Amino acid sequence: METELCSNYVDGSFKASPVEKSFNILLEWEVHDSGNVNAGAFELQRKMGSDGSFQSVNTGCIRQNGNLLSCTDMDLYKGYSEEFASVESVMYELYSNSSGSGKVRCDDTRLEYTTNAVRRTWGSIKALFQ
Questions:
Q1: Which of 50, 63, 74, 109 pairs with 19 at a CA distance of 20 to 30 A?
Q2: Residues 115 and 88 sit within 8 Å (Cβ to Cβ)
Q3: C-beta of residue 37 within 8 angstroms of C-beta of residue 51
Q4: This prediction's pTM
Q5: Is 65 helix (H, G, I), strand (E, B) or coil?
Q6: Left, alpha or beta for 75 (phi > 0: left; psi -120 to 50: alpha)?
Q7: Long-range Cβ contact pairs of 10-16 (< 8 A, separation 24 or more)
């Protein structure tokens, strides 16, 4: 079943892009046959910068619209001890899951992400006084 899920995945369609006017990242990918796909059968993992380990992305965010599946990663807020924001590389991996075959990696994508802890914190403080 796993091999079928990854073979149903459209090679090269896994993309990550920043969501305009937010601090989130939109992940999108396509499948050949939408009738043969359950959004819950996919898993996303993320690795920030030079951090050596991948972490699971909340898969409850996966939505299906025909052959297009998407997920908005809203968990990128990262406490940052420095005064200024910094740019980090974020890598995502897409996996398919099945109870019989386990987890199989389908694809990966990466982009540069600007941490925004200072701006977001200042915005929260400013909002308190409005």
A1: 50
A2: yes
A3: no
A4: 0.74
A5: strand
A6: alpha
A7: 10/67, 11/107, 12/107, 13/107, 14/92, 14/94, 14/106, 14/107, 14/108, 14/109, 15/109, 16/90, 16/92, 16/109, 16/110, 16/111
pLDDT at 29: 93
The token pair at 31 is 């499948």
Q: Where are the alpha helices (DSSP H) in 9-88?
A: none
How does pLDDT run across 36-68, given as a tens digit for each residue? 677 677 889 999 877 778 988 876 778 888 889
Residue partners of 7: CB distance under 8 A and separation at least 6? none
Q: 90: which 2 tokens?
A: 């974020």
Q: Which residue has the tokens 């090269």?
A: 12
